[in-house]
Amino acid sequence: MNSLYNLAGEVDLEDGIKKQFCGETINETEDRAVLHTALRSKLKTDTKVGGAISKQIAKTKEKIKVFVEAIISSERKGFTGKPFTDVVNIGIGGSDLGPMMVVEALKYYKNHLHLHFVSNIDGDHVQEVIKSLNPETTLFVIVSKSFTTQETITNSNTIRDWFLKKANKEAIERHFVAVSTNIQKAEEFGIQRDNIFPMWDWVGGRFSLWSTVGISIALSIGYKHFEELLDGAGEMDQHFLKMPFPENIPVVLALISVWYNNFLGAESEVVIPYTQYLKYFPYYLQQAVMESNGKSRDRNGDRVNYQTGTIVWGATGTNAQHAFFQLIHQGTKLIPVDFIGFKEPLYGYLEHQDKLISNMLAQAEALMKGKTVEEVVEESQHLSAEELNKRLPFKVFEGNKPTNMLLIKRLTPKNLGALLALYEHKIFVQGYIWNIFSYDQWGVELGKQLAGNILDDIRSQKTISEHDPSTKSLIQFYKE
Fold first, then answer.
1. Is the pTM here over 0.90, yes or no?
2. What is the mean pLDDT of residues 368-378?
3. What tens digit of pLDDT does each residue of 270-328 get?
């Protein structure tokens, strides 16, 4: 660990952390600052983004609060005068995964509104969401910075067509709101300017649930709990900013991950929350980690000659124990594990909670200690010598499998906020040590560009344009 702390010092990590928090343009390839931390800060400090940033955030938060409370209290109603009962968030990537994960995680705190999420550009998916909804009592939140994202706008148009079978165009302004920078496009869709919430270029999509993208969260749990979520993240921000490295949780977790990735050859990490509420958390981390640090060029543009981003996966315990833990215990791959548990159950079922946490602690102990030949012999005295020798190799566990244990008092909005911010900062530290840009995602652009060309070919009655032979034959097969 001392060597890893020295590594952090050698790359001047402390200076990098300060540059992010003060608003320097650390996302250099997109010429942007990275200031999602400002959204949850109670400090009214100036930044290089501009002195008005705190006022912008405060004004926008107030707008969210007023809107959310009007919907929840039924002060604002649908076009037939009925209060809203359902909310549909239409977005993709960070405009979907973050809010969906938090809404599920904090379901215990939800109010009467039922939240739904549409993301995939899959007509079957859209239809399954809207088929049981009442257009008179459903609010739609379209989240797209450019208001041109193919998946989001296609889904929004389909939903608007469905809505207009029961309502007139004037009703759109009562049932559709937007989170976007493209005011003109949103207004052309039928959304009132007052119902368009701003986005900022210094908030990346996968770190945007703290912003106006989190409106669906606030609608689900109420604005007070949404603020508590921000407060928890803000406290973790201050911890990350101020604590020395040996006591700094995000730094310690990041350094451990670098150790296993770069020095012991572990290619993936598994995250196991021991609460069903966090079932979407591994999915959320997949985007946050792999879109951030899946880079093969350093900050100078040169190809790196070492491993960077880790593969992140996982599921909830104890489900995971009955699924893939065999690979972790006795497989050939080194897979570090993060266990996340909570001491207090939300509904008070202590018998369940004791059994749940005992399983989590037992898995960590088993991964560390394994099982020796002597222990297998001791527990197998009922077997004949011949049968014991036959089974012995298969019942021995090597142990020495690495785990981290995060044991949190209770799943609250505030504690969830701190947990999410912890992993965000871990990502930053890893990227800084690997000397890569963590906050761009150019790798996802090529597929989007090619999809547009292929869509034209699918729709065209003419000869398919130039593609490689494999793609060309697949397009032809789809069209037949």
1. yes
2. 95
3. 999 999 999 999 999 999 999 999 999 999 999 999 999 999 999 999 999 999 999 99
- Asked whether residue 317 falls in the same domain as residue 434, the answer is yes
pLDDT range class, residue 461, cuts 50, 70, 90: confident
Q: Residue 345 falls within a domain, yes or no?
A: yes
What would the DSSP string read from start to end of 388-443?
Answer: HHHHHHHH-B-----EEEEEEEE--HHHHHHHHHHHHHHHHHHHHHHT---S--GG
Task: Give the Cα separation of 413 and 225 in Å (integer).
Answer: 6
Query: How much of the chain exceeds pLDDT 70, in percent?
Result: 98
Do residues 76 and 182 both lie within one domain? Answer: yes
Backbone angles phi, psi at 311, to 5 degrees: -85, 130
Three-state DSSP class for 126?
helix
Q: Give catalytic residue positions.
A: 291, 322, 448
- The residue type found at 126 is V
Query: What's the token pair of residue 225?
Result: 């709990």
Domain extent at residue 339:
243-440
Q: DSSP of 283-301, one letter per residue?
A: HHHHHHHHHHH---B-TTS
Residue spans of beta strands (DSSP E) within 151-292: 176-179, 196-197, 268-273
CATH number for position 402: 3.40.50.10490
Do 454 and 430 belong to one domain? no
Say how far apart CA 48 and CA 11 lie, in whole Å: 23
Question: Could you tell me if residue 187 is inside a domain?
Answer: yes
Residue 447 pLDDT: 87
Under DSSP, is residue 164 helix (H, G, I), strand (E, B) or coil? coil
Q: Is the bond preceding 316 in cis, omega lying within 30 degrees of 0?
A: no
Indicate whether 433 pLDDT > 90: yes
